[in-house]
Each structure stands twice: as structure tokens, then as C-alpha cells.
Amino acid sequence: MARIVRVEALMLDLVPKVKRVDAIQSFVSQETPIIRITDADGAVGMGYSYTIGTGGPSVMKLIEKTLGPALIGREAGMVEQVWRDLLFLTHATTVGAITAIALAAIDTALWDLRCRKAGLPLHVMAGGAQEKIRLYTTEGGWLHLEPAALVEDALRQKAAGFGGAKLKVGRPIHEDVARIAAVREAVGPGFEIFTDANQAFSVDDAIRRARHYEPLDIGWLEEPLPADDVEGHVRLSNATNLPIAVGESLYSHLHFRDYLQRGACSIVQVDVGRIGGITPWLKVAHLAECFNVAVCPHFLMEIHVALCAAVPNARWVEYIPQLDSLTTEGMTIRDGYAVPSTEPGLGIKWDLAAIDQQTVAGSRFEIKA
Asked: Which residues belong to any copy of the Mandelate racemase/muconate lactonizing enzyme C-terminal domain (predicted)?
């Protein structure tokens, strides 16, 4: 092993390729902190995380002033130990989004470094359970789109081999039903339709809507309620036969424990960029496995493809390309399946020149031994 001697960080601000509107917001920006960690042997690992347009500078400042300096001199291979120590160091701001996002950038970089030194791809280093994962798409299902556009996109994705598509819900009930029904009629019974409410409903509204959605054979109802309302999710899960999916807005592995113990969800959508990195992501995935619950992570497909292939209970990867302008090669897709990279590390081929060009002015810093 070798100790950490340098931490470099910068932030990008990526604009989505398409207009993204859901029941509570319009996604107009992805602030993307990127971390490079170098050990005494000269090995380098790169990691990243993201925000949806706000909080990025706060994440960077936490890394610069607190977390980055604490990395210097630590054994780079002791990833679990480092993650736990950083979590304790920030206990006054944990559990919280800013801290979890900062930890995620660091932890993914440490895993990248660890895998590269071992000469193994992430999906093997973290478990090696699957060779490919089924893909569904979200980019054609945003709430502002009309039924004809939803149908057109779903048919296109089905023809491309994708196994399903996600539709945003949150319009008046009759409109939601009409939109889902139009897509179901077009794609037939062999194509999954997932729905996502983005935490927009109250419990009574969610129960009512679920009963209207049930005859349309949807794969899950995602984030129907605010993420901190575990009891509401219990009531909803007991009132419907629809699978209830949660996780993209949970920032601690212990929160998933509460959901699973209470039977408040049946799909776990843990997001590596929000849970605090690969280390806690794997804890959640294996915890869900113990409850016979599938993992279908939110966003960040470029890293989730490897993590899903690392565990046996991962079922879907969400197709939302966002790193194309920062990489020299995209995620491998074959016949509607995401295939993890066989190269050592996270499997992301960063374009360093493109990253330099798109770095937010004043965001770059370096910490050395």
C-alpha cells in the first residue's frame, strides 16, 4: 500500500442534453465535482459526484477545507477505514446532502485508485456477480411531453432493445392515466413502463393514484411521497399491489434499513453520488439482498453499470447519458443491456482536455503533503 500525497479537485457545470421537467422541478444544471487522488507510488484515482444545480460550491469548500486535508498521509488502500473516519469527522453535518455528495466524490476516487493498483475492473473488485444489466430509458418520458412524444420515444427505445421506459407522473390523474395508457397500448405487454412522481404526492393522493395506475401494469411507482415519510410509504405499500421504489433522495445507508425493515418499499434506487460513495452503496445493495429486494439505482449510469454488475440483486440501469462531453468513450450497450468495462478502475474513460475546458472558473484547488 501507499499513502495519499496529493488531492486535486475541480467542478464542472453540465447542461442537460434535453429539457427535463418533473412534478416538482426543472433539471437545468448538473454541478459535477471531480476529484483526483494520488498516492506515494504515483497511482491516481478519479472520482466524482453531482448536484442538481445548487450546492456545488458548498461541496467543493467542504472538500477543500475539511475532507481533502484529512486524506493526506492516509493509506489509500484502506477505503472502508477512510470512509468511516471521514464520516465521523463530519458527524456534525451528517446526515446531509452536502456531506454525502462530498464523500461520494472522494470514495469513488479511492475505489478507482484501488482497482487500478489491483489491475481489476470495479465490477469484479466489488463482487463480480453479473456480466450485463438490462437498460431502461428516462430521457423521453419527462412531464412536459405530450402523449405522442412519449409513444414515439418508447417505440424507438423498444426497437433499440431497451427493456423499458420511465414516465413522469404528477399531472391530474386522468392525464397521467391517459399518458401511461397511450404508451402501454403502443408498446404492448412485453415492455416495462415505470412511473416517477418525484416526491410530489400526499399519502391519500398517492393511494388514489396507485389504484388508477394498477390496471396499466406499471413496473413501479417511484418516489411517490417525500423521502423522509417512512410511515407514509408503509401505508401506501399496504394499500397497493404496485412495487414502490425509493432511494434517490436518501443520503444514509441507515435510512434504507428503516425502509426495508418496515416493508415501506419493494425497489431500492440507491444513488452512489448521493449515498456517500461506493462503500455505502454496496452496504445498501447487500442489505436489500437480505430482504430479497432488487436494486435499480438512480442516474449516474456510467458508474452504476459496474456496481450493478458487482451485486446479484441489481435488475436495471437507468439510461440518462450525461458524461458524453467529458469522456472519450461511452458506456457499452449491447442488445439493450449495459455492459461493464473490463479495464481496471471505474470504467470511465475521462477526457482530461475536455474537463479542463469545462471547469468552472475558480473551482480548482490542490492539496499536497
From this structure: 147-243
Q: What is the pTM of this model?
A: 0.97
The whole-angstrom separation of Cα 350 and Cα 353 is 9
349 is catalytic: no
Residue 122 near residue 115, CB atoms below 8 Å: yes
Question: So what CATH class is 4-119+351-368?
Answer: alpha beta
Of 123, 132, 166, 168, the active-site residue reads 168
168 is catalytic: yes
Indicate where the chain has its CATH 3.20.20.120 domain(s): 123-349
DSSP 67: I
Q: Are strands 164-168 and 192-196 parallel, antiparallel or unpaired?
A: parallel
At residue 17 the predicted structure's pLDDT band, cuts being 50, 70 and 90, is confident
Query: Which CATH superfamily hosts domain 123-349?
Result: Enolase-like C-terminal domain (3.20.20.120)
- Model pLDDT for residues 83-104, shown as the tens digit of each residue: 999 999 999 988 899 999 999 9
